[in-house]
Each structure stands twice: as C-alpha cells, then as structure tokens.
Write a structure and sequence with these properties.
5 helices
Length: 195
C-alpha cells in the first residue's frame, strides 16, 4: 500500500495489541492522528486535528477510524467537505448507547447524517456494546457507504481477538482499489474470544 494511511483511534487511543496499532507498524505510509487529550475528548479538538493531518497528507489519504474516530470523521467531512481517497469506519458508536462515554466526551451529537464526500466502508459487529448493528446500518445508509457485518466481535478492538485482523486489511485493500463489498456482506465471522 503506497498511499498515505491515517489511523484515527477512539477514546483512550489504541493500545499495542489493537489492530490499528499493528497496522500502523506494518503499513509503510501509516501515521496516527495526534490529539490534545485521548481521554477527555472535545469533538472540535479532534476534528481540527484531523483537518490538519489530512491537509498535510493530501487528497490521496485513506482514513482508518475506530469507534469515536468514526464520529470524528463524520463531523470533519460535514464541516470541511474534503475529498480523500476513502475511509474505513470500524465500530461506529451510538451516542445514545448506555456504554457511550458521555462524561468524557463533548460535541459529538448530533451525528452528521449527510452523505460522505468520499468512498467509505462501515464495519460493524453484531454484539458491540457501544453501537448496535442497526445503528451502524443506519449510519452507513445515510453516509452512502456499504456495511460489512463481521458477526459477534464485540467492539472490534484488542479484546475481540482479531490480532492484526487480515479480513480488515482485505477491506482496506478493496477500498484502496476502488472495489466495494456488497451491502450487508460479511467478513471474518469467527466467534469472538471471551473477554
């Protein structure tokens, strides 16, 4: 993969065992979003940081976002309308979900509903405590993106037992090549490891 990749983690950043961190170490042109605070999150701060990174990397950038990073991408796209190569949006959280970290975050609601100005793939687990697959499906439809259902994989993080998540890398390669998975397609439907 010769195009710039921008890793956009969720709240708390992605630890060393998270597939985002493993991809960053593996992909030659991968960089990670830098934000003022990974644990107390203001949407405006993250959107501004994302805007700076994308401007520096250029229009050929592909974003790989997880969790709150997905909402950051949606807000950034709604505010700036910048066209990039694409975005892989994994485990989109629902701000109305009981598990959503409302005391540590601000400014993420309402979630933008307009079509994204670039190709994207939304990836969801069927048992994500931070956002149901129905919520992810609704976001994917509004954003004009296919949804990939990966079965019961929790929050699609280090606790999900994915390792470097080869099926996710295959989705990233599809996005980079311009090929899209079919709506509602599945990938990597092995049962989740116990948490």
């Amino acid at each position: 993969m010769t195009h710039p990749i921008l890793i956009v983690p969720g709240i708390g950043n992605s630890g060393p065992g998270h597939w985002q961190s493993l991809w960053q170490a593996r992909l030659p042109r991968a960089e990670r979003l830098q934000v003022p605070d990974w644990d107390r999150v203001a949407c405006d701060d993250w959107v501004a940081a994302l805007a700076r990174h994308v401007q520096a990397l250029g229009a050929d950038t592909t974003i790989v976002a997880h969790s709150l990073g997905c909402l950051t991408v949606a807000h950034w796209a709604a505010r700036y309308g910048v066209k990039i190569r694409g975005a892989l949006l994994v485990a989109v959280p629902d701000p109305a979900a009981a598990a959503f970290p409302t005391t540590e975050t601000s400014g993420f609601t309402p979630v933008p509903t307009q079509r994204l100005p670039f190709p994207a793939i939304v990836v969801s687990s069927t048992n994500d405590p931070y956002g149901s697959i129905g919520y992810a499906r609704g976001c994917a439809e509004q954003w004009g993106s296919p949804l990939v259902d990966i079965g019961p994989r929790g929050h699609v993080n280090a606790d999900s037992g994915l390792g470097d998540w080869p099926a996710g890398l295959a989705l990233l390669e599809q996005l980079l090549s311009g090929a899209e998975p079919e709506q509602g397609s599945s990938a990597d439907r092995r049962p989740a490891s116990p948490i």
